[in-house]
Amino acid sequence: xxxxxxxxxxxxxxxxxxxxxxxxxxxxxxxxxxLALDVILKHISDNPRLFPVVHDxxxxxxFQRFPYAVVYEIHEPEVVLVLAITHQKQDPKxxxxx
Length: 98
Prior knowledge:
It contains three helices and five strands, in the order βααββββα. By secondary structure, it is of the alpha+beta class. α1 (9-25) packs antiparallel against α2 (29-46). Helix content is 40%, strand content 30%.
């Protein structure tokens, strides 16, 4: 059973910001970021309890190559809500209250 992935609007904005930044650094780097995100989202969708709880019900999945994380919560029935796509050096208070 795969969970459906949904994004908060702010998480979509964070993703757009990251993609813009990587595209400005090197032409194909944003595409590599998207591929890395797809891998993480597939793991989350297939097994949302795979990644550790970091606060209350929030879980965090770290990117392998990029200094980013996907912060999410599991909602029933079979929905994962992405709260943030955050740089690991950003203050976690930015997403704790979402």
